[in-house]
Write a structure and sequence with these properties.
about 350 residues, alpha/beta, Rossmann fold, 6-stranded mixed beta sheet, two-stranded antiparallel sheet, 13 helices, binds adenosine-5'-triphosphate, cytoplasm, RNA-binding
């Protein structure tokens, strides 16, 4: 029987996936929470007392652990923050409708207000309809782009300007790997940041679980007996992300520190601005083809720093003149003769 490497008193029950340390359950829960508190303090995630902050709540393990830990830490360390659960209903039958029931229970369990915003209401399309139209290849792109904006819009309705997501170290490392393999250094730099803010938008996003391993999040949820929804999305992840995930899991098996090492590498690779591109054409409409012309021009001239501004159509955060959500809705509606971009209905 190993004594706990931290308290030296109780029997070690858990081998920490992050570093192999053998510790007892109480010390694991304590060290897991303490590390997230340290991340919050070191990165000044809650600089303003009295702030209302939205937690992107999917009902899955990550955002459920995030909500639970934040409630604990807010009470323990008195951050003075009010948390609100914000859920996006993508319109995926047999998946999101079930997980939203979990979020409704979490709202009661954690005593947090819950707000739900749907793709159908925002974009005129549920994900089930998008998949019917575009098929299973590439549908994750629509979902990811729509969700990002839907969270912004949901928060704005609540008069909240700070959104937290449950992205963990594995998620961040996976995205860094994907961007590295694509040679997309500007995006790589942005995805490695823990807090993203912009001078042209009031919305801030933070990832308090950025240094928490997925395996430890599962362990924490298990030992705290949290109520979360564990089914995978019925539309499996796009092939490239799936491959990056498998690669990461293989690396983790032979070297558990790989996940944090990749996150640290991403942080070191934060791209440095090399000045504006000369020939970038302006994008005047939501036509995604024009945006791809812009991309090609950038490829010829070398990468540029991706700066965050506002979409000319809908006014929400965008690194392009026309945001990706507007471009995607445009492409979905175009063949239905609905050229009016629905997202313009709610300007910022
Ligand atoms: N439908 C949703 N509504 C609100 N927030 C969401 C939704 N889907 C994802 N998010 C936010 O984005 C984060 C990352 O989402 P992702 O799809 O990678 O899921 P995940 O890693 O399985 O996380 P979770 O376990 O919380 O579902 C989530 O932790 C959550 O904060």
């Amino acid at each position: 029987m190993h004594p706990c490497a931290i308290c030296q008193r109780s029997r070690a029950q858990i081998v920490r996936p992050k570093n192999g340390q053998k510790i007892c359950k109480a010390c694991f829960l304590d060290v897991f929470e303490s590390e997230i508190h340290t991340t919050i303090i070191e990165n000044d995630i809650f600089p303003t007392r009295g702030e209302r902050v939205a937690i992107g709540a999917s009902g899955g393990k990550d955002s459920t652990v995030l909500a639970s830990v934040l409630k604990t830490l807010n009470e323990r360390y008195d951050y003075g923050v009010e948390f609100v659960l914000l859920s996006i209903d993508e319109g995926i039958h047999g998946y999101r409708d079930d997980s939203l029931e979990t979020v409704k229970r979490n709202a009661v369990q954690y005593g947090m207000e819950l707000s739900i915003v749907g793709y159908e209401e925002l974009y005129g399309w549920t994900m089930d309809q998008v998949v019917d139209k575009v098929g299973r290849k590439g549908n994750c792109t629509y979902c990811g782009v729509f969700r990002r904006q839907a969270l912004d819009r949901g928060a704005k309705r609540l008069e909240i300007s700070h959104i937290l997501t449950g992205h963990n170290a594995d998620d961040v490392a996976e995205t860094i790997l994907m961007n590295f393999l694509r040679g997309d250094l500007p995006r790589l730099g942005r995805c490695a940041e823990i807090v993203t803010a912009s001078s042209t938008s009031t919305m801030k996003r933070s990832k308090p679980l950025k240094y928490a391993y997925e395996k430890e999040i599962v362990l924490y949820a298990h030992h705290r007996q949290l109520d979360y929804f564990s089914t995978e999305c019925v539309y499996s992840p796009e092939a490239f992300r799936g491959s990056a995930r498998s690669l990461l899991k293989e690396l983790e098996k032979v070297r558990p520190s790989s996940i944090l090492d990749i996150v640290r590498s991403g942080e070191q690779l934060l791209y440095k601005d090399i000045g504006p591109s000369k020939k970038t054409p302006s994008v005047a409409s939501g036509d995604p083809n024009q945006q791809s012309t812009r991309k090609q021009t950038q490829k010829q001239e070398g990468p540029r720093l991706q700066t965050v501004g506002s979409c000319k159509h809908c006014g929400y955060m965008s690194s392009q003149p026309i945001c990706k959500a507007c471009a995607l809705v445009y492409s979905l509606n175009k063949s239905n003769a609905l050229v009016e971009v629905l997202v313009t209905e709610e300007p910022s």
